[in-house]
Amino acid sequence: MITNLLVANRGEIARRIFRTCRDLGIATTAVYADPDADAPHVREADAAVRLPGAAPADTYLRGALIVGAALAAGADAVHPGYGFLSEDAAFARAVRAAGLLWVGPEPAAIEAMGSKTAAKRLMAAAGVPVLDALDAPTEADLPLLVKAAAGGGGRGMRVVRDLADLPAELAAARAEAAKAFGSDEVFCERYLPTGRHVEVQLLADAHGTVWAVGDRDCSLQRRHQKVVEEAPAPGLDPAVRAALHAAAVAAAKAIGYTGAGTAEFLLGPDGRCWFLEMNTRLQVEHPVTEAVTGLDLVALQLAVAEGRALPGPAAPPVAGHAIEARLYAEDPAHDWRPATGTLHRLELTVPHEEFTGRGVRLDSGVGDGTEITPHYDAMLAKVIAWAPTRAAAARRLADALARARIHGPVTNRELLVRALRHPAFLAARLHTGFLAEHAETLTAPDRGGADRAALAAALADAAARRTALPSGWRNLPSQPQLKRYRTEDGTEREVRYRLTRTGLHAEDHPDVDLVEAAPDLVVLREGGLRRAYRVARYGDRVHVDTPAGGTALTALPRFPDAPVRTDPGALLAPMPGTVVRATAAVGDTVTAGQPLLVLEAMKMEHRITAPADGILAELRAVPGRQVETGALLAVVKPLDPPAAQTAAQPPAQSPEEV
């Protein structure tokens, strides 16, 4: 019987597991790296043990340190969550060797599925269809996907469309895989750009029962990482669904699996499916399965770990539909660039229901005031909605996200709302290239919304000044007030207005009337339509929220400083991160768009490319060094005079997923 559970993880998944522990009467122990000292998961645990350091390699990936923490805290069991050491057989053995209960499958089962190449061979022998690894790819096999044999989360993956690029992409994938997973084994398989990612949730006990707990579609992805997941997978032919469930159960039985796990498949446009891998842990997207079944998967994991049998020969039937959206601190319009800084507010209207109940659910690893750092994954939260039908679930989730107040670093919230409302999504025309295919409409700036938001921000600022300062009203006409703001896409908005005894006179908004203005709330009326704008300011950052969505603005000075001139060939860090490697040396002749450096931020690698043809004159970045946004990384001296450079050349820094 588990009495005290240590969660060898952080953030959202640690809080999720603690929630079930509280329901079951189990004491909880957290571990934390230094950047997480005041994190919500630390505050919510009954006890917490520090892991000195910041980088995952020094903290959450040190198995011996975590086992020591469990023993010091008096824990009698360890739950690994997902990521970090959750699929490390050596860690599972170390936990057991210390006399602790391991909440997960047998180490041998983890080992059997730990290598994707070995897992494919095992599944093929068990009669499960697999997408064969290609030992000697040819032109006929293009496009290819290079994948790390160990680990997941999109790391160590590259798409290759030209065989000439294969050696360099293999080398880059090996380097990233070795750093992330401790193994540089990679392999190639065919890449299906319009395939669907479908998976089956598994639960198995030590008494011979294996459940296929429904299926999920996880096709909406970026950088080979999931963004939107749903259960059940829409539009599956009943025969295909039955075949997937049978293959997943066969996979679990082939390795004597126990606990929670997921069999992942690639579904081709022709309806054929292939086994991809088995995740021997709880998945990030498990809440959608909980929503449609009413199960608490963490509670069942704990029960199985204690040796109890699953409550019945088969999982309960699926009811309704659930969709999950991952809220990331990143900018989809700029190559999914990760964002850092203070999250001032995360406010979502969530009904007070059990988290396995049916409505809207928020699973978050952050809270108001949390500092978002470059050390960990960019995911802030997951928002899950259930409804009787898929269309109703999509509408409910989109509305919940649009109404949320998210103040701080830029997020992918607007992209999520647009994706959930997109006709192709609602028609279930899903594939792993969906976000790239519809990128233009999903990331286009909202010009009209930003104009109204800027006007509301200016009026709220004026109200705040009237509150703070004595009135300066005059019985004479005055010049219009001028306020300037910059939106997230870099566009500047200029607001000119006057407040007179007859009301608001805004130059670019002649039909807008002011109903009410306070420092935190502005109500405007246009053509009989009345709208409320909630305004919050943090320094020069202003967030304006309406039921239709939010707009982030940066207040600009009325008389801007002279722009700082920089060398046009200077490469500046577009984000805080760690320099992973340099792919060119000082004195090399480089071409426009050629990768020169690789930065790692929020568990993803980003290329820094040459702005133009030229000579790499300076290289200040050193592998292993932390850099801040705007730090000078390198300088490329053009081969031709600057006047000869064309506007069509790429920007000085263009990080992209590698």
What does this structure look like?
- This protein is α+β, with helices and mostly antiparallel strands and 658 residues long.
- Helices cover 25% and strands 32% of the residues.
- The protein is built from 16 helices and 38 strands.
- The strands form nine sheets. An eight-stranded antiparallel beta sheet has the order 13-12-9-10-11-14-21-19.
- The longest helix is centred in the C-terminal third of the chain and has 22 residues, at 447-468.
- The protein is globular, with a radius of gyration of 27 Å.
- 49% of the residues are buried.
- Mean pLDDT is 90; it is low at 643-658.
Short characterization:
The protein is an alpha+beta fold.
Characteristics of this structure?
38 strands, alpha+beta, 16 helices, 8-stranded antiparallel beta sheet, 32% strand, disordered C terminus, 658 residues
